[in-house]
Amino acid sequence: MAAALLALPVLAAAGLVLGAGQATAAALCPGRLVKTVTFSTGSLQVYKSRAYACAVTVAKKPGARREMKVSLQPRGGRAVVDQGKFTTRAGPVRVHALNRCVRASGSVGGSAGSTGWIGC
């Protein structure tokens, strides 16, 4: 019984680590997930609330620093970009998008994905 009680925190921590990428993105971007684009080295996640859109690029395998990028552009506006060498994610980036389409792109290493115009 005591061994089982000691194992519970370890199992709970392992569960948190395994789902950390999605949970982190959701915690950083308010709103609901509207689009996920997966590519070989990671994923691009776009969230939308009433007035704002938010995007995050998350590495499939966090670890060593590597080039990552996330870009989010409202139709008729300038893109907001977060780019650099990161271990886990690029972003979040946020734009005002009340009644506006947005497009997002993201990359991890040499692999990339994009959404095209969404939310129109």
**What does the main sheet amount to?**
4 strands, antiparallel
Tell me the structural class. Answer: alpha+beta
Remind me, CATH topology? Answer: Immunoglobulin-like
Number of helices: 2
Integer tally of domains: 1
Shape: globular
Strand order of the largest sheet: 1-2-3-6
Helix content: 10-25%
N-to-C SSE series?
HHEEEEEEEE
| Unreliable residue stretches | 1-21
Instruction: Supply Rg.
Output: 16 Å
| CATH top level assignment | Mainly Beta
Q: How many β-strand stretches?
A: 8
Q: Proportion of β residues?
A: over 45%
Provide mean pLDDT, rounded: 85
Which architecture per CATH? Sandwich
N/C terminus separation: 56 Å
Protein name: Secreted protein
Keywords: Signal
Signal peptide: 1-25
Organism: Streptomyces halstedii
